Amino acid sequence: MLRTKTKRRVTVAAAVLVAIGLLLAPTGRINAADHAEATLVASFPGGDIADVYAFMDPNDNTKVVLAMDVEGFIVPSEMVNLGFFSPEVKFELQIENTGDAIPDEFIDVMFSPQTSRSVPQTATISLPGGKSFTAPTTVPNLSATAPQFTVTTDPATGVSFFAGMTDDPFFFDIVGFNRFVASIQAGNPDPTKLQRGRDSFAGYNIHMIALDVPVAMLKGSAGSVIGINGVTFLQKKQILPGDGTRATASKFVQFDRMATPAINTVLIPYARKNEYNASTPADDAAGKFATDIIASLTGLGTNMTNINTLAGVAVQHGDYLRLDTSVKNTSLGVGERLGASGFAGFPNGRRPGDDVIDTIIFFVSNQALTTGDNVNENDATFGTAFPFFAPPHQPLDSGVDDGTRN
Predict the structure, then answer these.
(1) Among 39-43, 87-91, 172-176, 194-198, whose mean pLDDT is lowest?
(2) Radius of gyration, CA atoms only, the chain
(3) pLDDT in tens, 255-290
(4) pTM here?
(5) Integer Cα distance of 257 and 165 in angstroms
(6) How many CB atoms lie within 10 A of CB 9?
(7) Which of 31, 173, 191, 334 has a CA-to-CA distance to 43 between 20 and 30 Å?
(8) Inter-CA distances, 44 with 4, 35, 73, 184, 311, Å
């Protein structure tokens, strides 16, 4: 979809530097990176973004892999029933490439209605510059072996596309982290709560949308650095009286957004999570949520040095997952640690194997907790070629460990 946008200048919020002597309002239960983090998205899983990924294709650094997954916690036995993408949702990857908080390019994906559980849906992919193509989804099954991923490459643009069920690549101990946060709020921080080492996402599947895009299509005046924001929109429709026929579709309304992991889930107060999802990176840069973010970090015991590091990511230029495309990448990040020689991952974009939770805990704890949540890698093995994510978990025979780690 070709768009022209009038840009407005966004002033970096002075709120980043506001006094931090605020009491932490309890943020409620922490769900995940962004899985069902707010009541509205939890009520409509088809538009609920779980995670966003942006990384240099390890096989070809002239391309960037962009991915967004939605509607997590799908058990293998329900893949066929739930393994479709909602045609009511527009899935959008917004690209910021001029160094401010306003998106400059857009990749939109929409799906045809599902007509059969054994027939692919058709995705329509709209690219920067008004180019578009269509591609089939990968149909899930209940066999012991997962289906081969269906990848479509558009010959006109060189963009490759995949949409289908995969293993949920996020790895995190939700329970251990919630218990740790509760100990902090009770005034008795207890890092041993992080020693369960149980991956709350092991054994579950998710709906994945992934693209392999030439870097040249995404870069702008900011040079090698691009920002990525995942957004879902719902289309407002009106039901006609009588026969229930739907009227002509009206405009799309923003439903959810996701870029830097854990910002909404951990740092935005519960009462404002729906508001955050309906807002924009420009709102972030204008300081709309700065006071809340700083108050939450203060309540977690984070000092000003590390508050500035974390708040700067989510506030100064808006919440984007920023990737320097000039930094070489040859892996998916499995087993690599922040600060290691040649490290090319989060917060420089995000690879599937990047331990984002350990990185966030490191800064929230004033760089004291280096072991994080003790869940150090995904439960399934990633692929060696695009789309790189692991195939979905399939139903298992009786007596076989189901793989969940709750």
Answers:
(1) 39-43
(2) 21
(3) 999 999 988 888 899 999 999 999 999 999 999 999
(4) 0.88
(5) 20
(6) 7
(7) 173
(8) 30, 12, 14, 32, 29
